[in-house]
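# step 3/5: fold
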Amino acid sequence: MNANAKRSELGICALLLVLGVLVVTDALRLPTDFAQRGPVGPKAVPIGVGSLLALVAVLLAVDVLRGGRGEAAAGEDIDPDAPVDWRAVLLLSAVFLGNAALIETIGFPLSAAAMFWGAASVLGSRNAVLDPLIAVVLALTTWFVFDELLGVPLPGGPLMEVF
C-alpha cells in the first residue's frame, strides 16, 4: 500500500474516532428528565452508536497499520460524467424546508406525510394511490414511535386532537 493510500485510510479512521467521541460526549450531556421512561433513556442509543463508531475506527486503524486495505469499488450503474440534476436537488431542498416550516403549524404527521410524498414525487415515483398512502403510514408510524413509545414529544397538530 502506498503512503498516500495509507494516510487517507488513517484519515478516515481519525474522522470516525472524532465523530464517535463527539456523539458520546454530546449524548452524555443530554437532559433525561423530559423523556426518561424506565431504565433506558434517550442517552442509550447515541452512546451505543458513538461507542461503536470509536470501536470501528480503532479496529480499522489496526487493520490499515497491519497492511490491510479496502477493496476498490467495482463500479456502480451511474455515469460519473453526467451533470448534477440541480432541479431535483432544489426541489428536495424545498420539500425538506417546507416540512421544517410547517411542522409547528400543521403538526408532524401532516408535514412529514407531505415531505415523504413530495420526496417520492421528486425522485420519480408517480403512483397516485400508493405514494400518499405510504407517506401517511410512514408519517404516523414515525410520530407514534417517537411520541408514544420513546417519549420524545412531537407536535401532533390539529388532526391528532381528533383521535
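# step 4/5: annotate
The CA atoms of residues 8 and 30 lie 33 Å apart.
# step 5/5: archive (pending)
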